[in-house]
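Input record (one chain):
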Amino acid sequence: MLFDVITLFPDFFTSGLSCSLLGKALAKNIATVNLVNPRDFTLDKHRRVDDEPYGGGVGMLLKPEPIFAAVESLTVLPRRDIILLTPQGSALSQPMVRELAFNYDQLVLICGHYEGVDERVRYLATREVSLGDFVLTCGEIPALALINGVVRLLPGTVGKVESLKAESFENCLLDYPQYTRPPSFRGWEIPTVLRSGNHGEIERWRRAEQIKRTCDRRPDLWKQWQEDNFE
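The corresponding structure, as predicted from the sequence alone:
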């Protein structure tokens, strides 16, 4: 998987791309991240990438020319998606992450900044993605989140593939509660069933806890799970 990230701040990714499983996956060439600075594609002596919005308004907008030039400089693989990170996009979700991981070989991520991008940049994108209904200072944060979510699904990143099948948002259910040693901590005891050795009972308890937790915390996912399983 190739990630081409169009970013004014490539240094932002230095730590996030080198840590934990993500860093190991990149070191094993499970995925490659190519950081491209649109400032390198400016033509004026000041290397200007932003300007004032037409019609007035607060803040500055990223100009279209450097972003178009940066994207057009990239290698094009057959299965490519160009994603604009913006609060106006579709919310990033586990089904979307899964789709990106298994249906594409190249993801181009355009990171907005300041007050956003010139509207014509949207013509470059095949989709727009947001982390949720809130505003961030830059598109680098959701870009890194998207990279992390996609890479962890790629074969070879996670040692135990089974662990990916029972986590939050798989099949529209949240994850079940998990415990480790000690069995008693500040008066909180782990559920007796987890120490019973009865794997059938443990699986039934975990499933029941997934359903209960999803129903209590995420009515939207609970409704979707019911529709998927009781049509």
